[in-house]
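Hi V.,

Quick status before I head out on leave. The structure for the redesign project is tokenized and pasted below; the design run finished overnight.
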């Protein structure tokens, strides 16, 4: 969600933030509470070992590592420690960091499954989704490489309120990059701060952080989540439009505009709903 109010505390609501708000806690806790118990359901014969691992769209790498540890019954931290030796087919731009390449899907588990084999399956699946894709979004196609496209897809996954909004959110990102504007998106700040919240203060938007796109131009240094197929599709080929701003006022009502004054009015409506105690998301 974009909000360029110069002062005070503002409220920003994205799909990821709503998940944590409903759960009443941090994003990791909300996701683990919903998904991990499902993984522990074994077969009808009484075997409690999970038969598959489901990675939801938008999970961060840390959440995937934690779920893998639990699904495989290995000590906490085992999967993360396996990353450097897993031989993952990552681009040089990733610097060995698989964030963004742990493709959301359901992966079968068996006696031969290890953190390394599952991580490889996820990365290989992500590469297949990106391989040969024609990026047709930016004004300068050559300026957007596959890693940057994946980074954009991860932001789309975090920011879009619905799948129907993903294409427009991607277009906003490209338009702001093409116009030399900072992205100013809170999902990116939250990633750098290792948190998820619906409240971001002006002080946070001024903090020195490599993921603070309020003060830094361009894309963040890495993806901020693991995007699914729809977010990738949106990043690769978004619809045409002149939008530069968007905000989710309430469920089903995300407003996109190219006019700053109109954006400010929409943001004021969100803040009014918040201060009045009426839920702006559910």
């Amino acid at each position: 969600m974009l909000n360029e109010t110069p002062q005070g505390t503002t409220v920003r609501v994205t799909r990821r933030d709503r998940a944590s708000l409903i759960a009443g806690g941090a994003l990791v806790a909300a996701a683990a509470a919903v998904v991990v118990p499902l993984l522990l359901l074994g077969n009808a014969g009484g075997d409690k070992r999970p038969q598959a691992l489901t990675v939801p769209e938008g999970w961060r790498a840390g959440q995937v590592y934690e779920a893998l540890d639990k699904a495989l019954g290995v000590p906490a931290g085992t999967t993360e420690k396996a990353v450097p030796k897993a031989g993952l087919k990552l681009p040089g731009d990733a610097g060995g960091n698989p964030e963004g390449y742990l493709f959301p899907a359901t992966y079968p588990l068996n006696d031969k499954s290890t953190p390394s084999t599952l991580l490889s399956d996820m990365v290989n699946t992500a590469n297949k989704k990106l391989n040969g894709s024609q990026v047709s979004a930016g004004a300068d196609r050559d300026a957007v490489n596959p890693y940057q496209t994946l980074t954009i897809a991860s932001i789309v996954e975090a920011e879009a309120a619905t799948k129907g909004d993903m294409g427009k959110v991607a277009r906003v990102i490209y338009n702001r990059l093409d116009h030399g504007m900072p992205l100013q998106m809170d999902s990116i700040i939250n990633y750098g701060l290792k948190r998820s919240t619906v409240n971001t203060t002006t002080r946070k938007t001024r903090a020195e952080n490599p993921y603070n796109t309020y003060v830094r131009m361009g894309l963040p240094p890495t993806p901020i989540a693991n995007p699914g197929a729809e977010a990738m599709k949106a990043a690769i080929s978004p619809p045409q439009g002149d939008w530069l701003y968007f905000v989710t006022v309430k469920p089903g009502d995300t407003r996109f505009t190219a006019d700053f004054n109109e954006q400010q009015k929409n943001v004021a409506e969100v803040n009014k709903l918040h201060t009045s105690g009426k839920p702006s998301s559910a």
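Above is the designed sequence. The chain has two domains: 9-22+136-275, 27-130.

G. will cover questions while I'm gone.

Best,
W.
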